[in-house]
Design goal:
Elements lengths: L1 E5 L2 E5 L5 E5 L2 H12 L3 H8 L1 H26 L4 E4 L2 E4 L8 H16 L10 H13 L5 H13 L10 E9 L2 H20 L7 E6 L2 E6 L3 H4 L7 E5 H7 L8 E2 L14 E2 L17 E4 L11 E7 L4 E3 L7 E4 L1 E7 L21 H17 L2 H6 L8 H22 L3
Antiparallel strand pairs: 1-2, 2-3, 4-5, 6-10, 6-13, 7-8, 7-9, 11-16, 12-15, 13-16, 14-15
Amino acid sequence: MKILKIDSTVTVITDDGQVISAQCTDEQFKEVYAFVRANDVEAVKNMLVPELCAEEKKFVQKKHIVENIFTMTKDMPHLFSVTDNALYRQGIVLSVPEELALAYVEAYQNYLDSTSDLDFEETEEFQAIDRFWMWCSLNPNAESREDLFRFLQHHEMQITNQGMFLAYRRVVSKNAENKGLVGFVSSNYVKVKANWKKSPKSYYVYEKDGMLQLVHMDSVSDIVGDDYTYTYKGTLEQLYLDLPNLMQEQFTDAHTHTMDYRIGVEARIHRHQGNQSNQVSCSKGLHVASKAYDYSGFGDTAILVAVNPMDVLAVPRGENGKLRTCAFTPVAVLEVDEENNILQDENLDFSDILFTHYEEQVNNLRSMLENNSAYELNVNHILNAPNQFMLDTILGNLESAQETINNRTSYL
């Protein structure tokens, strides 16, 4: 290698003709000079053009993964095919977006590297990605299908085993007393089921001196005993499932104050009521966000919501961490220390929390398909389904997933 320094600019020419040029201090020049003497090209690149070095590493890694797509397809022909260098999930005529295709391959590589006795289709990593794509392929907005996984990946947003994704938003509380009960029950339900991995049926909620308390069934005699100042409210499971039935209004939106948001109840607008352009950053639709978006001015209460990829209206390209959807389901009220942080906790598993929500989504899809022809669904932009075979394939896969999830949660 050869090295040349003019003022603060250093240029290095490698033996194979690469030209690396950048500004550096005298101290940095001494280090670069030592790397040149040692003929260490990678060290020179890391020193002078670290961003280029990082991109080169990404390119090599990506090239390796792309090569593995063909290996995966060859090994799993019942799941995948490749046409014109694009990956397809069998039964779905839409090509898999690039980032999602790479995620499939990464899941397959992890499967090969593992010592598990499970088949590839039984692994949680594959199931989350695959069900996500099943739902996403039913979204009529091609741009949203292409952009959604990239958005979620960039913002490290969690995709559950059911293929749904979780996001944040703020709402306006409509009843202070009601908010206390809803917040206590929903946040503890998430904590017990997603964090502690315990059954909410085993936890009782009591009220004493106006304060709600969570008590494990085995500790009732020790904590409550014969103290009649404790009022039994119900099991945590029962109370959470009853939240949608509360007569009092729970939450609404800060913009129009017309939406009725309830924990466990899907909030939905007609798709045509929202703006589906990914070129418009702030427009009509139900907004959800990642931790990158500052939504503090949009309500007094932070909540966690579950979103079906099928319902995403737009992933605005000029927006940092926010997207629009035509439906979402509030899962829980977030405590102050959980806001923007709960989804970053690797110990939390939300899969079991959403099995009822998933069942409703599958039932809605089944009902949609039974009451409308594929042609009507397509014309009305309800689903992006070119033929009945694709719809049957997707519904069959999702129903199979529903059965698996129900079996998993039956012990709770």
